Amino acid sequence: MSSIYWYDQQFIPAEAVRISPQDRGYYFGDGVYEVYRVYNGRLFEPGLHFARLARSAAGIKLALPFGEAELQRALEELVLRNEVSEGTVYLQITRGAAPRNHLFPADARPVVMAYCNEMPRPAAAMEAGIRTITLEDTRWLHCDYKTLNLLANVLAKQTAAERGAGDAILHRGGTVTESSASNVMIVKDGRILTHPADNLILHGVTRAVALRLARAEGIPAEERAFTVDELLAADEAFVTGTTVEVTPIISVDDRPIGSGVPGPITRRLQMAFARAIGLDR
Ligand SMILES: Cc1ncc(COP(=O)(O)O)c(C=O)c1O
What is the chain's pLDDT, residue by residue, as a tens digit (281 residues)? Predict the structure, then answer.
Protein backbone atom coordinates (compact mmCIF):
# COMPACT_ATOMS: atom_id res chain seq x y z
CA MET A 1 0.00 0.00 0.00
CA SER A 2 1.16 3.51 -0.64
CA SER A 3 2.23 5.46 2.40
CA ILE A 4 0.96 8.84 1.23
CA TYR A 5 -2.74 9.39 0.57
CA TRP A 6 -4.53 12.30 -1.09
CA TYR A 7 -7.29 12.99 1.41
CA ASP A 8 -9.49 16.07 1.69
CA GLN A 9 -7.30 17.80 -0.95
CA GLN A 10 -4.09 17.24 1.04
CA PHE A 11 -1.23 14.76 0.95
CA ILE A 12 -1.03 12.97 4.28
CA PRO A 13 0.40 9.70 5.67
CA ALA A 14 -1.93 6.68 5.47
CA GLU A 15 -2.21 6.53 9.29
CA ALA A 16 -3.54 10.09 9.38
CA VAL A 17 -6.59 9.33 7.18
CA ARG A 18 -9.74 9.52 9.32
CA ILE A 19 -12.95 8.24 7.73
CA SER A 20 -16.05 8.91 9.83
CA PRO A 21 -18.26 5.96 10.83
CA GLN A 22 -21.09 8.20 9.57
CA ASP A 23 -19.67 8.26 6.05
CA ARG A 24 -22.41 7.57 3.50
CA GLY A 25 -20.01 5.41 1.52
CA TYR A 26 -19.94 3.09 4.50
CA TYR A 27 -23.73 3.17 5.11
CA PHE A 28 -25.10 3.20 1.58
CA GLY A 29 -22.24 2.74 -0.90
CA ASP A 30 -23.15 6.35 -1.69
CA GLY A 31 -20.15 7.36 -3.76
CA VAL A 32 -18.20 6.88 -6.96
CA TYR A 33 -14.69 5.73 -7.72
CA GLU A 34 -12.06 5.23 -10.41
CA VAL A 35 -9.08 2.92 -10.77
CA TYR A 36 -6.31 4.28 -12.98
CA ARG A 37 -3.39 2.36 -14.39
CA VAL A 38 0.10 3.75 -13.92
CA TYR A 39 2.67 2.77 -16.54
CA ASN A 40 6.17 4.14 -16.35
CA GLY A 41 5.16 6.49 -13.56
CA ARG A 42 2.43 8.08 -15.70
CA LEU A 43 -1.38 7.89 -15.47
CA PHE A 44 -2.93 5.95 -18.37
CA GLU A 45 -5.76 7.75 -20.21
CA PRO A 46 -6.58 10.25 -17.42
CA GLY A 47 -8.98 12.11 -19.74
CA LEU A 48 -11.15 9.04 -20.27
CA HIS A 49 -11.18 8.34 -16.54
CA PHE A 50 -12.20 11.89 -15.70
CA ALA A 51 -15.01 11.87 -18.28
CA ARG A 52 -16.38 8.65 -16.78
CA LEU A 53 -15.98 9.94 -13.21
CA ALA A 54 -17.85 13.14 -14.06
CA ARG A 55 -20.61 11.08 -15.68
CA SER A 56 -20.87 8.73 -12.68
CA ALA A 57 -20.94 11.65 -10.24
CA ALA A 58 -23.65 13.44 -12.24
CA GLY A 59 -25.58 10.16 -12.38
CA ILE A 60 -25.76 10.01 -8.58
CA LYS A 61 -26.21 13.80 -8.21
CA LEU A 62 -22.86 14.32 -6.52
CA ALA A 63 -20.96 17.54 -7.25
CA LEU A 64 -17.25 16.80 -7.67
CA PRO A 65 -15.19 19.10 -5.43
CA PHE A 66 -12.40 19.45 -8.04
CA GLY A 67 -11.96 20.06 -11.76
CA GLU A 68 -10.17 17.86 -14.28
CA ALA A 69 -6.84 19.71 -14.24
CA GLU A 70 -6.72 19.91 -10.44
CA LEU A 71 -7.46 16.19 -10.12
CA GLN A 72 -4.85 15.21 -12.65
CA ARG A 73 -2.20 17.35 -10.96
CA ALA A 74 -3.04 15.83 -7.57
CA LEU A 75 -2.98 12.22 -8.80
CA GLU A 76 0.29 12.78 -10.68
CA GLU A 77 1.80 14.17 -7.50
CA LEU A 78 0.44 11.21 -5.53
CA VAL A 79 2.18 8.81 -7.92
CA LEU A 80 5.39 10.80 -7.68
CA ARG A 81 5.33 11.07 -3.88
CA ASN A 82 4.77 7.32 -3.54
CA GLU A 83 7.40 6.56 -6.21
CA VAL A 84 5.05 4.21 -8.06
CA SER A 85 6.27 3.19 -11.48
CA GLU A 86 3.94 0.36 -12.55
CA GLY A 87 0.76 0.21 -10.53
CA THR A 88 -2.68 1.64 -9.91
CA VAL A 89 -4.31 4.68 -8.38
CA TYR A 90 -7.56 4.20 -6.48
CA LEU A 91 -9.74 7.30 -6.13
CA GLN A 92 -13.09 7.48 -4.36
CA ILE A 93 -15.49 10.25 -3.53
CA THR A 94 -18.40 9.72 -1.17
CA ARG A 95 -21.28 12.08 -0.46
CA GLY A 96 -19.79 12.72 2.96
CA ALA A 97 -20.56 12.03 6.59
CA ALA A 98 -23.97 12.64 8.15
CA PRO A 99 -26.40 10.87 10.51
CA ARG A 100 -27.95 7.91 8.71
CA ASN A 101 -30.86 9.02 6.55
CA HIS A 102 -31.65 7.97 3.00
CA LEU A 103 -32.22 11.61 2.00
CA PHE A 104 -29.17 13.56 0.91
CA PRO A 105 -27.73 15.51 3.86
CA ALA A 106 -28.05 19.28 3.51
CA ASP A 107 -24.56 20.14 4.68
CA ALA A 108 -22.27 17.11 4.17
CA ARG A 109 -19.01 17.71 2.32
CA PRO A 110 -17.86 15.07 -0.18
CA VAL A 111 -15.02 12.93 1.18
CA VAL A 112 -12.22 12.44 -1.34
CA MET A 113 -9.58 9.79 -0.85
CA ALA A 114 -6.92 8.46 -3.22
CA TYR A 115 -3.94 6.17 -2.84
CA CYS A 116 -1.66 4.30 -5.19
CA ASN A 117 0.01 0.91 -5.22
CA GLU A 118 2.82 -0.74 -7.08
CA MET A 119 1.21 -3.55 -9.12
CA PRO A 120 2.88 -5.46 -11.94
CA ARG A 121 1.04 -6.23 -15.16
CA PRO A 122 -0.74 -9.64 -14.88
CA ALA A 123 1.77 -11.45 -17.09
CA ALA A 124 0.80 -15.03 -16.18
CA ALA A 125 -2.94 -14.61 -16.79
CA MET A 126 -2.33 -12.62 -19.97
CA GLU A 127 -0.13 -15.44 -21.25
CA ALA A 128 -2.18 -18.49 -20.22
CA GLY A 129 -5.71 -17.06 -20.10
CA ILE A 130 -8.37 -17.64 -17.47
CA ARG A 131 -11.20 -20.08 -16.87
CA THR A 132 -14.59 -18.49 -16.28
CA ILE A 133 -18.13 -19.37 -15.23
CA THR A 134 -21.42 -17.75 -16.24
CA LEU A 135 -23.85 -16.22 -13.74
CA GLU A 136 -27.08 -14.27 -14.03
CA ASP A 137 -26.40 -10.52 -13.82
CA THR A 138 -28.39 -9.44 -10.75
CA ARG A 139 -27.17 -5.84 -10.60
CA TRP A 140 -29.22 -2.65 -10.85
CA LEU A 141 -29.88 -0.86 -14.13
CA HIS A 142 -27.11 1.72 -13.84
CA CYS A 143 -24.00 -0.39 -14.25
CA ASP A 144 -22.66 2.52 -16.32
CA TYR A 145 -22.12 4.52 -13.11
CA LYS A 146 -18.95 3.44 -11.35
CA THR A 147 -20.40 3.51 -7.84
CA LEU A 148 -19.21 1.91 -4.62
CA ASN A 149 -22.24 -0.43 -4.70
CA LEU A 150 -20.34 -3.53 -5.76
CA LEU A 151 -21.93 -6.28 -3.68
CA ALA A 152 -23.32 -8.16 -6.70
CA ASN A 153 -19.89 -7.94 -8.35
CA VAL A 154 -18.19 -9.13 -5.16
CA LEU A 155 -20.55 -12.12 -4.86
CA ALA A 156 -20.01 -13.03 -8.52
CA LYS A 157 -16.22 -12.92 -8.20
CA GLN A 158 -16.33 -14.94 -4.98
CA THR A 159 -18.58 -17.58 -6.56
CA ALA A 160 -16.16 -17.83 -9.49
CA ALA A 161 -13.23 -18.34 -7.10
CA GLU A 162 -15.15 -20.96 -5.12
CA ARG A 163 -15.70 -22.84 -8.37
CA GLY A 164 -12.01 -22.64 -9.31
CA ALA A 165 -12.50 -19.97 -12.00
CA GLY A 166 -10.74 -16.66 -12.50
CA ASP A 167 -13.89 -14.64 -13.15
CA ALA A 168 -17.65 -14.76 -13.63
CA ILE A 169 -19.22 -13.67 -16.91
CA LEU A 170 -22.57 -12.05 -16.24
CA HIS A 171 -25.65 -12.31 -18.44
CA ARG A 172 -29.19 -10.98 -18.35
CA GLY A 173 -31.54 -13.72 -19.50
CA GLY A 174 -28.84 -15.19 -21.74
CA THR A 175 -27.40 -11.89 -23.09
CA VAL A 176 -23.81 -11.39 -21.94
CA THR A 177 -23.19 -7.99 -20.32
CA GLU A 178 -19.68 -8.01 -18.81
CA SER A 179 -17.71 -9.80 -16.10
CA SER A 180 -17.56 -9.10 -12.38
CA ALA A 181 -14.79 -6.54 -12.88
CA SER A 182 -14.05 -6.26 -16.60
CA ASN A 183 -15.66 -6.02 -20.03
CA VAL A 184 -16.05 -9.10 -22.23
CA MET A 185 -15.34 -9.41 -25.95
CA ILE A 186 -15.62 -12.35 -28.33
CA VAL A 187 -14.14 -13.00 -31.75
CA LYS A 188 -16.20 -14.78 -34.41
CA ASP A 189 -15.06 -15.18 -38.01
CA GLY A 190 -12.42 -12.48 -37.55
CA ARG A 191 -14.81 -9.90 -36.03
CA ILE A 192 -14.78 -8.62 -32.47
CA LEU A 193 -18.14 -8.27 -30.72
CA THR A 194 -18.81 -6.56 -27.40
CA HIS A 195 -21.87 -5.28 -25.54
CA PRO A 196 -22.80 -1.68 -26.46
CA ALA A 197 -21.86 1.03 -23.96
CA ASP A 198 -25.34 1.50 -22.52
CA ASN A 199 -26.69 1.39 -18.94
CA LEU A 200 -26.05 -2.35 -18.51
CA ILE A 201 -22.25 -2.26 -18.50
CA LEU A 202 -19.43 -0.14 -17.21
CA HIS A 203 -17.97 1.90 -20.06
CA GLY A 204 -14.49 0.52 -19.59
CA VAL A 205 -11.49 2.66 -20.40
CA THR A 206 -9.62 -0.45 -21.54
CA ARG A 207 -12.66 -1.46 -23.62
CA ALA A 208 -12.52 1.89 -25.44
CA VAL A 209 -8.76 1.58 -25.95
CA ALA A 210 -9.08 -2.04 -27.17
CA LEU A 211 -11.78 -1.08 -29.69
CA ARG A 212 -9.63 1.82 -30.91
CA LEU A 213 -6.58 -0.43 -31.26
CA ALA A 214 -8.56 -3.20 -32.98
CA ARG A 215 -9.89 -0.78 -35.57
CA ALA A 216 -6.41 0.68 -36.10
CA GLU A 217 -5.17 -2.88 -36.67
CA GLY A 218 -7.86 -3.37 -39.31
CA ILE A 219 -9.81 -5.85 -37.16
CA PRO A 220 -13.57 -5.21 -37.52
CA ALA A 221 -15.10 -4.50 -34.11
CA GLU A 222 -18.81 -4.19 -33.51
CA GLU A 223 -20.61 -2.98 -30.36
CA ARG A 224 -23.43 -5.49 -30.41
CA ALA A 225 -24.68 -7.67 -27.58
CA PHE A 226 -24.11 -11.42 -27.87
CA THR A 227 -25.59 -14.40 -26.07
CA VAL A 228 -24.04 -17.04 -23.83
CA ASP A 229 -24.52 -19.48 -26.72
CA GLU A 230 -22.56 -17.17 -29.02
CA LEU A 231 -19.85 -16.92 -26.37
CA LEU A 232 -19.61 -20.71 -26.15
CA ALA A 233 -19.41 -20.93 -29.95
CA ALA A 234 -16.86 -18.08 -30.27
CA ASP A 235 -13.45 -18.59 -31.87
CA GLU A 236 -11.84 -16.49 -29.13
CA ALA A 237 -12.91 -14.52 -26.08
CA PHE A 238 -11.16 -12.11 -23.75
CA VAL A 239 -11.76 -9.62 -20.97
CA THR A 240 -10.53 -6.04 -20.86
CA GLY A 241 -9.91 -3.95 -17.76
CA THR A 242 -7.48 -1.62 -16.05
CA THR A 243 -5.82 -4.34 -14.01
CA VAL A 244 -6.35 -7.29 -16.41
CA GLU A 245 -5.52 -5.37 -19.63
CA VAL A 246 -6.41 -7.86 -22.40
CA THR A 247 -6.69 -11.30 -20.77
CA PRO A 248 -7.77 -14.33 -22.81
CA ILE A 249 -10.73 -16.44 -21.70
CA ILE A 250 -9.87 -20.08 -22.37
CA SER A 251 -12.99 -21.73 -21.00
CA VAL A 252 -16.56 -20.94 -19.96
CA ASP A 253 -18.39 -23.28 -17.58
CA ASP A 254 -15.68 -25.90 -18.23
CA ARG A 255 -16.19 -25.75 -22.00
CA PRO A 256 -13.17 -24.65 -24.05
CA ILE A 257 -13.42 -21.47 -26.11
CA GLY A 258 -12.07 -22.10 -29.61
CA SER A 259 -9.20 -24.53 -29.26
CA GLY A 260 -8.91 -23.84 -25.52
CA VAL A 261 -5.83 -21.63 -25.81
CA PRO A 262 -5.51 -17.86 -26.39
CA GLY A 263 -6.33 -17.04 -30.01
CA PRO A 264 -4.44 -15.03 -32.66
CA ILE A 265 -6.64 -11.90 -32.59
CA THR A 266 -6.42 -11.75 -28.81
CA ARG A 267 -2.63 -11.99 -29.14
CA ARG A 268 -2.56 -9.21 -31.75
CA LEU A 269 -4.58 -6.95 -29.48
CA GLN A 270 -2.31 -7.71 -26.53
CA MET A 271 0.69 -6.69 -28.61
CA ALA A 272 -1.03 -3.54 -29.86
CA PHE A 273 -1.90 -2.69 -26.25
CA ALA A 274 1.69 -3.22 -25.12
CA ARG A 275 2.91 -0.91 -27.89
CA ALA A 276 0.31 1.68 -26.86
CA ILE A 277 1.80 1.76 -23.37
CA GLY A 278 5.33 1.95 -24.74
CA LEU A 279 6.43 -1.66 -24.23
CA ASP A 280 7.35 -4.30 -26.77
CA ARG A 281 5.26 -7.12 -25.22
C1 LIG B 1 -17.85 -4.14 -13.73
C2 LIG B 1 -16.67 -3.65 -14.49
N3 LIG B 1 -16.71 -3.68 -15.84
C4 LIG B 1 -15.66 -3.26 -16.58
C5 LIG B 1 -14.50 -2.79 -15.98
C6 LIG B 1 -13.35 -2.35 -16.85
O7 LIG B 1 -13.22 -0.95 -16.86
P8 LIG B 1 -11.80 -0.28 -17.05
O9 LIG B 1 -11.26 -0.78 -18.34
O10 LIG B 1 -12.10 1.18 -17.08
O11 LIG B 1 -10.97 -0.68 -15.91
C12 LIG B 1 -14.42 -2.72 -14.59
C13 LIG B 1 -13.19 -2.19 -13.97
O14 LIG B 1 -13.03 -2.16 -12.81
C15 LIG B 1 -15.53 -3.16 -13.82
O16 LIG B 1 -15.49 -3.12 -12.49
Answer: 568 999 999 999 999 999 999 999 999 999 999 999 999 999 999 999 999 999 999 999 999 999 999 999 999 999 999 999 999 999 999 999 999 999 999 988 999 999 999 999 999 999 999 999 999 999 999 999 999 999 999 999 999 999 999 999 999 999 999 999 999 999 999 999 999 999 999 999 999 999 999 999 999 999 999 999 999 999 999 999 999 999 999 999 999 999 999 999 999 999 999 999 988 66
Which residues span the domain enclosing 58?
A: 4-118
16 plus 106 within the same structural domain: yes
Closest to 157 measured CA to CA, from 170, 148, 143 = 170
Per the structure, the count of domains in the chain is 2
Go through the chain and tell me how many residues it has: 281
Task: Kindly state whether residues 104 and 173 are assigned to the same domain.
Answer: no
For the chain, how long is the longest CA-to-CA vector?
58
* CATH value at residue 265: 3.20.10.10
CA of 99 to the centre of ligand 1 (A): 32
Å from CA of 279 to ligand 1 middle? 22
State phi, psi for 183 to the nearest 5 degrees.
Answer: -90, 155
Whether 281 is covered by a domain: the verdict is no
Q: Are 119 and 87 in contact (CB under 8 A)?
A: yes
Residues with catalytic annotation? 146
Question: Ligand 1 atom closest to Cα of 146?
Answer: 16
Ligand 1 shell residues, CB under 6 Å: 35, 153, 178, 181-183, 202, 204-207, 240-242
**How far, in Å, from the CA of 184 to the mean position of ligand 1?**
10
Q: How many CB atoms lie within 10 A of CB 121?
A: 18
pTM of the model: 0.97
